[in-house]
Amino acid sequence: MNWIAIVLIVIGVWLALKVAGAFLKLLLWAAAAVALWWWLHPYLGVPFLPF
Asked: Fewer C-beta neighbours within 10 Å, C or N terminus of the chain?
């Protein structure tokens, strides 16, 4: 492999890790929102699943 291929592989791995990190952060925020809704829905008088 030449140096351009190595640079492209390194950049690709770096971008894949960035995307995976962003997806994990989004997943954790969604889990926190669901947990908060699960805790608050009885006090608000609304069903757990509003649809």
From this structure: C
